[in-house]
Each structure stands twice: as structure tokens, then as C-alpha cells.
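User: I'm putting together a teaching handout on how multi-component assemblies are represented. Below are the sequence lines for each component of a complex, exactly as they appear in our records. Could you produce the 3D structure of the whole assembly as C-alpha cells, so the students can see both representations side by side? Please keep the chain order the same as the input.
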Amino acid sequence: MPETKELTTPEQASVERWEQETLAPALKQRPERKQKFETVSLAPVNRLYTPADTADVDYERDTSFPGEFPYTRGIHPTGYRGKLWTMRQFAGFSTPEETNARFKYLLEHGQTGLSVAYDLPTLMGYDADSPLSEGEVGKCGVAVSSLADMEVLFDGIPLEQVTVSQTINAPASVLLAMYLVVAEKQGADFRKISGTLQNDILKEYIAQKEWIYPIRPAMKLVVDTFEFCTRHVPKYNPISVSGYHIREAGATALQELAFTLRDGIEYVQWGVAAGLDVDEFVPRISFFFNAHNDFFEEIAKYRAARRIWARAMRERFDARNARTLQLRFHTQTAGVSLTVQQPLNNIVRVAIQALAGVLGGTQSLHTDAYDEALALPTDQAALIALRTQQIIAEETGVVNAVDPLGGSYFVESLTKQMEDGALDYFAKIDSLGGMVAAVEQGFPQREIQESAYQYQKAVERGEQTIVGVNKYAMEDEPVKVDVLIIDEAVRDHQVERLQRTKAQRDNGAVANALEKLKRAARDNENTMPATIEAVRAYATLGEVCDALRDVYGLYEEPAF
Amino acid sequence: MSERKIRVLVAKPGLDGHDRGAKVIARALRDAGMEVIYTGLRQTPEMIAAAALQEDVDAVGVSILSGAHNTLCPRIVELLRERGLNDCLVLVGGIVPKEDVPRLKEQGIAEVFLPGTSTEDIVRFLRANVHPRT
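Assistant: Of course. Below is the structure of the complete assembly, with chains in the same order as your input.
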């Protein structure tokens, strides 16, 4: 074909020569094992990547140096040579007493930050004694119904010194208020408190589905926390925009990237619309990504995330502050990739996923415990998970050079593909009227469902391998693992403290504070001061959320 | 005799919102020619039993990942039987420790599908175990 010949670059010409002279005879002798090679996201992977694949990636413009725009190679000029990532294991189960003991155990063994998992009633804004909480108290996390529980949870843990991440979304402002009151009682200075609130409500409607109120008032509550923290708790991250759950729900790596960053842009838009200064509040927005099995795809995802965010903040919001442009993120290994079958295999999966997070330049990391497909982790499983991070950090040497995969034809090409794909999704979402509107129309939800289904089919056809499940399965598995069982008595214990708290508090003060909160919600004022007043008076989580439910109503998911 | 399509209610009891499995199963059963009704999230056992009766289903597939299965699943069976749905199969899928399976079966759960189950196995189970109706 003479026309295409004219357009062939020297790089392409050399690839063609290799294909004819070396590849073709080799293929004739031994065909490849499969017709198509795909990532775990079912994205095609080429046989070989060469300079021809990165011809449109400009080093100065697109890749650049670590610590410089667009931060593809990381936000710190020294990578992990200056400071390692924070090893932050997510923990929470049973009573606040039990979780407090686990926190102290993890800190004693070298963990450098805390991360709280709450149980489902807490995540949904119900007290332990609600009929809806039956069977669920303390099961998937720690049960917190009032400030009294929070005081026990952080007993002996100095909140001015230890950074704490809280996984809480729909009732996030209430748990933040409780946390701040506990800190205040410890004598901590709000201006010194740092830590992170997940507080990402958009991904709840998109993927995790632990919502309470309709989307728009829920977004307003998020903006209230931005405003409050910017003013009073300036070192605190009031949101962790999360792709983790989007991925777990079945999204591809690209969908995780695109929906998460577009969610981030939506929060910035809402903050700006509320009168906040981009360069003041966006530096405290952090992100949270999944680390799944496909090693290079994941690394490319993190590198692309930084580049896309930096460009979006500059182009869409005219951001000037370098901190606004720098995407910081937490990573957790993929719970969805863990198998019940041959559970010790999960230790290996987690190690490889964690390595991808590190090579992608994560700021903090949670490594899953090998028994998490069965139940919440035992002490032993939790410790191995932490040791996995310590081995990566201190034995493998991957931390010695900054962005060691930068310049790889494959990784740079994948990074560019990720960026281009995400920008296509942005254009689609923008055309739907933004992310809130897109979620209301079910767009990201449908995309994720489709990917989840296609993946399941690929597994069932044997195109995607899960070791120990659809290949190398064993009838009688050699290893039995101990599982952490949460006793139903946890609920009684929690209900008892709840009743004691209600008997001892000043009910008049509680009623007044709740009334004030409703007024703030109705008048569209910032709800944080009234929320703090209410929890300080020991209003329960359920009572505070009920007050807001009265004003805002409940979200009903349409059928998508 | 024209064969009646198998009708299945896919139900999500409890507070947990992880509906990936429920939705994948719903679609796989539909693709296999069954009629599927999905309850949506956070249904009480009472709501699930009422929906099963109203929709006249052959089976209820309960998806549960929160650890609340021992409380919620037997309750669903009990309520179905109270409403006279004696042949309606109750299947459970999700994160259920193996040790809990025998007890769930004693309490009337027809089968528990653990993580890693192929959707085809579930289709096969339903075809083999739903009593034919006309």
C-alpha cells in the first residue's frame, strides 16, 4: 500500500522490519498461546511496545520530572527516598473497645496511621438499637452510635499526633463532628489535627450504595464539611474521592479512573459554587484508588490520574497553587480479587497489587488480609498484610529510584491510553450535564454493571483465570484458616451503652441542638456547627440523621 | 402444555449495598430465559416474602455479603412458608462461611452458592430443582 508507506515514520518502519524478519518466522514455528491478550479490564494488550507507541508522548509536556507539572512521575521530587508511604491498615470490628485494642496493636507493630471501618448501621446512620440494625451490629466494622462510643474508640490515642482516616460517607459530617469533639476533649488544637474523612457521596450512588438522603442535599452536606474544615481544621482532608468501590463494583481500570476524577471535578465545582477558593480547599482533597491484579494497567492508571488532575485543575479552574494541581492518593489492594478458595494465595495477590500501588507513587496504602474474602481479618492475617508493605518498602529496593517505570514504552503508552479514555468519558459526562446529572440518569451505574457482567462471562469462558477457582482448583483444600466471628452479643453491649448515655444526658440540650440543626438544613446554612453541638450533647447518630432525614427526605434508587 | 418460564426473585436483604453479585446473577438468569424480578436494596425479610408472593416466583435468590445471613435467611424461609409458598426455593449467594452452610440448609435453604460459583451452575440448579408448573 504505497499511500500508507508515505506516512510511515522511521520508528514504525523499524517495527515493520522486525515483524517481517524476526517475528513472522518465530510465529510460524510457534504460534502464540492465545488469540487475544487482555488486561483484567478486558482491554487489549499489544505484543510489543516500541518508540512508535510513545511517539505522541512528549517528555517535557506529558511526562516531565517528579514534583513538576503535570506530575505524571509523582508529586515529590524525591519519590520515596524522602518519605515512605503511610502504612494505613483499615480496621474496625465489633465494639469500640475491641477496635481500640486492634488500633493499639497495629501502632505497636509499626503501622504509621489509623483507618476506621464502621459497621453497616453506622454507615447508614442508624443506632445499634434500631430494628434495621438487627444482625449487623459490629459485623463489617466497629459500631458507633454516639460520642460515648467514639470516646472509647480513641481512648489513649492522641488525635493531635496520629492521623486517622475514617471510612464514612452518608453520615460523614456527624462522625467528623464526633471525632472533633473527642479531639477537643483530649485538649487537641483543631489546627493541628490531620486525617481524612472519606465523605465521597457520589460513589455511593454510583457503586457502593450506602446512601441516606437524595443526591443534591447530600452534596450540600459534603460542601459544608469543606467549608468548615477549610476554616477551622485546615490540615484535615475532608474528602477522599474514591475509585476503590467503583472498581470493586465491577468497573474497569479506565472507568475507575474516569468516574473518580470526574467526581473530583464535580466536588470542586460545587465548592467553587459555594464561594470557596479553589487554591484554598482543593489542596485538601485526596483520592483513593484500587490496586487490582493487572500490574502495568494499574501503574498506568495512577500515573495518568496525576496528569489528568493537574491538567483539569489548571484548565477548568485556573488553579495556581501547586498543591491544588498535585493529586495525592491512598491505595487499597483489591478485595474483589481475593478468593475463598486456597486463601493463602491471597497473600501473593496482595503483595503484587501493593507493589503496583507503590510503583504508581501512592501516598498511603492498605494491604488486604488474606482471609478477607471469608470475614474480617484475624490478628495474624492483619499482621502479615502489614509485613507485606514493610517487605516492599525495606527489602525489594523498588523505592530507591523515583518512578522507576517512567520511560517504559509499554507503561508510557498505557498511561496515554488511560488519559485519552478518561477524557472521552469526561466529554460524555459533561454532555449529560455533569456528574450529579449523569448519576441521576444512571450513566456510570450502567457502564459499571455492563463491565461486571462481561468480566463474569470472561471468567466463565476461562478467558480470565482465577487461580484456585477456575484453574488449579482443589477438592480438598490443604489449609484451613481461622475466621474472626463477631458475636451477636456485641449488639447487646452497644445497646446497653446507648441506653446509659441517653439516661445520663441532658435531653433538653439534645432537643434544642437537633432543632437548630434542622433549621440550618432548611435555611441552607452550614450544618456543621449545629451537628457538633448536637453530638457534644450526646445526641445519637440515628437522632442526628433522623433530623436531616426529616428535612431532606430519603434517596430511592431508580431502576437502571 | 406450554412450559412456564422459571420466575426468580433476586433479593438483597440487610443494610449492605454491594449489589454487583445480585445484578450479575439477575442478568445471567434473564439471559438463560428466566423471568427475574430484582427487589432493590435493603429489603426486610417481610418485604421479600411479600414480593415473592405477589410475583408468584419459583425461587428467591438472596444475595448477602454482610455476615447477617444467619439472622436474615432463615427468617425469609419462615415467612415464605407462613404465606403458603411451600415449594418456593430459597437460594443464598455471597460471603457465607462454609461452616454455616449445613445449619442454613437445615433451616430450609435449598442451596448456598459460595464465591467463585459460575452463573451456569446456578442456572443448572434452578432448572433441576424448580418443580414444573403449568
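A couple of points students might notice: The mean pLDDT of chain B is 93. The beta strands of chain B are 7-11, 35-38, 59-64, 89-94, 111-113.
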